[in-house]
Design brief:
The structure holds 2 protein chains of 2 kinds. In chain A, about 55% of the residues lie in helices and about 10% in strands. By secondary structure, chain A is α/β, with parallel strands linked by helices. In chain A, the strands form 5 sheets. A 6-stranded parallel sheet of chain A has the order 1-10-7-4-2-3, with helices on both faces. In chain A, a hairpin with a 4-residue loop joins strand 5 and strand 6. Chain A is elongated, with a radius of gyration of 28 Å. Chain B is an alpha/beta fold. In chain B, the strands form 3 sheets. Chain B has a 6-stranded parallel sheet with strand order 1-12-7-4-2-3, sandwiched between helices. In chain B, helix 2 runs parallel beside helix 3. Chain B is globular, with a radius of gyration of 17 Å. Classes of the chains: A alpha/beta, B alpha/beta. The interface between A and B is large, with 78 and 59 residues. Strand 9 (about 270-275) of chain A pairs antiparallel with strand 9 of chain B, so a sheet runs across the interface. The complex binds iron/sulfur cluster (2 copies). Chain B: It comes from Desulforapulum autotrophicum (strain ATCC 43914 / DSM 3382 / VKM B-1955 / HRM2). Chain B: InterPro entries: FTHF_cligase-like_sf, LUD_dom, NagB/RpiA_transferase-like.
């Protein structure tokens, strides 16, 4: 559970997690293994098609939530189930507690339910003198340790077998050999079986509530939910309203994705369908006492929210944590309160409040890995930013971000500020081009990478001298530079022009272009982000160009994907934004797919080249093959295992969480090193800054080049 | 016919991939022989917890010699039950079809006849509103399920009408069972038999 009151304490806890070697190793192994097993289990399937089906089915059900509830209730009551609706977490807990008291219950067994964790049900029951035992192995372990889950599917993934062995030694009062996991599992089997036998009431969650038959569907691997719903005389299911689905068909569709996405299994060992109170010889009546408590806790409001209703699509597969580079570094206790991972950052705000969410939502690097695997197609990074912006609106924007957003909304002021910075840094730059001695406030945490100096002359000042003159052009192109290339790496843009030379590309550099606005979006400054977007759409008239080329993947993805959304689609600016967005193209795609540079234009050297796929290129724009093909045309390609894993930059993120950024970078550079490549090519100035700065600091032997620099260098 | 063969082989392949043992049997009698033979040879692992009694012993060893291994087969009709009982007796096993709540710490084997199979995932569908039948698939060390080959469908979607009919006939309890009970909660290492059966044997029964 995440309980840090302020960002400083939160960062301290993050540091603690980063220093936990077991956790780091376990997470690393898991991240790599998960990627492989997910790929395997989905092979031959149209993953995106099924995900779209899940999203569609969930959306339809969410829109009919109230109606489905009534229908379910009718059918369930006909079958003899008592159905309750709890508006809040407390109300749900009180209802369940009352059922226990009314039925003279003293011992309760539970199978896994995230919803019960959301309401902190165990605390409530225990405070009312009821004995509660979790029976899912991982949940039992963390219950015994008085901890919260660190993963939605694998709640005890942060623990080693030794820790579990010690725990079981305590519990059984007998030395348990911890190296033998099979043995530990058998110990749990025996201990828990006794609990099953003694219990008077079983509490479960449910993955599905089928309205047309009043059926609950429960997915487990261990089989504990079957015992929980069979042995005790009373069964209570606590179910979030978003689990309601019209028919079995919808549930079967979700079930095609959920286990595959969660653990790489085609299906879990058990899927249990319960309709009505079944035979139960432990009750005098011969039948089970069965109750279903539906939990609202804000869900009905959420279902009606145009932006956030998609949160309710979540099927709790946990995949968004499995692929998250931040989760991989810090584990679940720093990446969620009760719900973990990308969705956890969002749900914490809705189910557990602003205070618990305000630090967490800042800990997203915006790499998009979660969105690309989400079983329900939820725009997780977008919603995380949205929550962040809402919290700022509610609590006030920090002064620095207000000032920065003011400055950035005026291009001239912003650019003057950058020019001033280039002047002010002079004494600390020396001849290397890196800032050698940072002012003390930055120095300690930021010393993992060499920070490049601001260029002496930005691209906009040298533009006229490098502007290509092309007669009878084949393509008319506007260059969108982005701030980093304009002011820090103008040479990348110059290289880009060289790489295009001879292909009849007439390039224009519209001077009124401003920052793309992504950093503002990341800081939660939505209105400033909208303002600069409008400025850019006005500065570059899409009608005049065949393409708007950008060498910065982050800019490109923001311009292409976010602009049409953040500028009101019904306004004229919105229509323009759509036209603008249609013309945006990444440098690689332009070089490889549009002008189709040929192998014989390049001198192929013997140097091996590996590639880092910028998040905003491979996932943001879906550009994966063009960079590979370009590298193969101009050099010897040595692919890296974790090519698509984030480098840890994330713009303002690396400034906010430098420790995490550093560790992600280290993993990345290790992976690059393994390829033995001489050159690491990438296509985003932010990635170049992070990777080159890190490699310089670690004295890695490979060079880091922007794709434009690499192609310009290899041109005949 | 080719198609149904194909479905059977997909079923076997998928079920084996999740550690189920899949064998073909010509008749139900052959299934009884298989089960009894397997049960006789197997070392029991279930603990011996007792209702409201002393805590279970920590080490599971073989049960004391005088207790006979129990095979539970609550789903069989009386004719088949009598045949199976004879075979069990010959193998020094006790067959039962009721009172499983007296054996909650575990029985050696549960023997069931599955309602359907799902090829795509190697899944058994067992309709078990009867408590005895349900328990027999949960508290056994080894679960042996007979699946008539004609009952295998390609995907779960193909069973929608049948399943919905079962659900409507409430109270109803229907289980999809795929492989043995498993966990990976400790260091993500796969371990079988955390709560339910440690082994699942599926006997594909050929058509008469
Ligand atoms: S965008 Fe990346 S960093 Fe943010 S939550 Fe998703 S996976 Fe994690
Ligand atoms: S948000 Fe998506 S990926 Fe994350 S747990 Fe929910 S369904 Fe799975």
């Amino acid at each position: 559970m995440q309980k840090a009151e302020n960002i400083k304490k939160y960062k301290r806890e993050v540091d603690g997690a980063l220093a936990n070697d077991f956790l780091r190793l376990a997470m690393d192994k898991f991240a790599v293994a998960y990627r492989g097993s997910r790929e395997n289990v989905f092979s031959g399937m149209d993953v995106n098609g099924i995900i779209a089906e899940v999203a569609g089915a969930k959306d339809a059900a969410i829109a009919r939530m109230d109606e489905l509830y009534e229908l379910f209730k009718q059918n369930a009551e006909k079958a003899g189930i008592t159905v309750h609706l709890a508006e809040t977490a407390l109300e749900a807990n009180e209802i369940i507690c009352k059922i226990a008291k009314d039925n003279d219950v003293s011992k309760i067994i539970k199978s896994k339910s995230m919803t019960a964790e959301e309401t902190l049900l165990n605390h409530h029951l225990e405070a009312n003198d009821l004995e509660v035992t979790e029976t899912d192995l991982g949940e039992w372990i963390i219950q015994l340790r008085h901890e919260g889950p660190s993963h939605m599917v694998m709640p005890a993934i942060h623990l080693s077998r030794n820790q579990v062995g010690e725990l079981f030694t305590d519990v059984t009062g007998k030395q348990q050999p911890s190296e033998d996991i099979d043995h530990l599992v058998k110990v749990a089997r025996q201990q828990l079986r006794q609990k099953f036998i003694e219990a008077d009431m079983g509490i479960s969650g449910a993955n599905f509530a089928l309205a047309d038959t009043g059926t609950l569907g429960i997915i487990t691997n261990e089989g504990n939910a079957r015992l929980v719903t069979t042995l005790p005389r009373v069964h209570v299911a606590l179910v979030g309203l978003e689990k309601l689905m019209p028919t079995l068909h919808d549930a079967l569709t979700v079930n095609r994705v959920l286990p595959r996405n969660a653990t790489g299994q085609a299906i879990t060992s058990y899927v249990t369908w319960i309709s009505g109170p079944n035979e139960c010889k432990a009750d005098a009546t011969g039948r089970k006492q069965m109750h279903i408590v539906f939990l609202d806790n804000g869900r009905r409001k959420l279902a009606k929210d145009p932006v956030f209703s998609q949160v309710l699509r979540c099927v709790r597969c946990g995949a968004c944590a499995n692929v998250c580079p931040v989760y991989r570094m810090v584990g679940g206790h720093q990446m969620g309160h009760i719900y973990i991972g990308a969705i956890g950052l969002i749900m914490t705000y809705f189910f557990h409040g602003r205070d618990k969410a305000k630090n967490l939502v800042q800990n997203c690097i915006n790499c998009g890995a979660c969105k690309s695997v989400c079983a329900a197609g939820i725009d997780l990074p977008g919603l995380i930013k949205e929550v962040h912006a809402r919290i700022l609106d509610e609590t006030g924007h920090p002064l620095t971000s207000v000032m920065l957003s003011k400055v950035m909304q005026s291009r001239e002021l912003f650019h003057r500020f950058l020019r001033y910075a280039s002047f002010a840094q002079k004494p600390v730059v020396g001849k290397t081009g890196y800032i050698r001695h940072l002012p003390m406030i930055f120095a300690r945490e930021h010393d993992f990478k060499a920070i490049p100096a601001i260029a002496e002359r930005p691209f906009r000042e040298i533009w006229e001298s490098v502007r290509p003159s092309v007669e009878n052009p084949r393509y008319r192109v506007a260059l969108f530079s982005g701030c980093v290339q304009d002011f820090v790496y103008p040479e990348q843009l110059v290289a880009g022009l060289q790489a295009m030379a001879g292909h009849g590309v007439a390039v224009d550099f519209p001077m009124d272009q401003n920052c793309c606005g992504l950093p503002l979006q990341m800081m939660g400054e939505k209105s400033a982000a909208r303002e600069v977007a409008a400025q850019n759409v006005a500065a570059i008239d899409p009608d005049q160009y065949d393409y708007i080329v950008t060498l910065c993947a982050s800019c490109a993805s923001h311009l292409k994907n976010a602009y049409p959304k953040i500028l009101d689609p019904d306004s004229i600016a919105g229509t323009k934004a759509k036209q603008f967005s249609d013309k945006i193209i990444s440098f690689s795609s332009f070089m490889n797919d549009v002008i189709q540079v040929r192998q014989d234009e390049f001198t192929r050297s013997d140097e091996t080249v590996t590639y880092h796929a910028p998040c905003h290129l491979c996932r943001g724009l879906g550009v994966k093959d063009a960079p590979h093909e370009l590298i193969q045309k101009a050099g010897v390609f040595a692919p890296a295992q974790e090519e698509e894993t984030c480098c840890g930059f994330g713009g303002t993120y690396s400034g906010k969480f430098p420790q995490i950024s550093k560790e992600i970078l280290n993993r990345k550079l290790d992976d690059v090193k393994q390829t033995g490549a001489d050159i690491l090519v990438t296509e985003c100035p932010g990635c170049v800054m992070q990777l080159r700065g890190g490699a310089e600091k670690r004295c890695d032997s490979f060079r880091v080049l922007h794709m434009a620099e690499f192609l310009a260098k290899q041109r005949k | 016919m080719d198609n149904s063969k194909n479905i059977c082989s997909i079923f076997s392949e998928k079920a084996k991939a999740v550690s189920a043992v899949v064998t073909k049997v010509p008749t139900i009698q052959a299934a009884f022989e298989y089960a009894a033979d397997l049960c006789r040879q197997n070392d029991p692992v279930s603990g011996q917890a007792v209702k409201n009694g002393t805590p279970p012993p920590q080490n599971q060893g073989p049960r004391s010699v005088e207790t006979q291994k129990i095979v539970a087969a609550p789903g069989l009709d009386s004719g088949l039950y009598a045949e199976f009982e004879k075979i069990c007796g010959a193998n020094d096993l006790t067959l039962t079809n009721k009172g499983l709540r007296d054996h909650l710490t575990g029985v050696a084997m549960g023997f069931t006849i599955a309602d359907y199979g799902i090829a795509e995932t190697g899944t058994l569908v067992i309709n078990c509103p009867s408590e005895e039948l349900r328990l027999s698939t949960m508290i056994c060390d080894i679960h042996v399920a007979v699946l008539p080959m004609s009952r295998i469908r390609k995907s779960a979607y193909d069973l929608e009408p049948e399943l919905t009919k079962m659900f409507k006939n409430s109270p109803d309890y229907t289980s999809f069972i795929t492989g043995a009970s498993r966990t990976a909660d400790i260091e993500r290492v796969l371990a079988l038999g955390v709560h339910g059966p440690l082994e699942l044997h599926i006997l594909l029964m050929e058509e008469k």
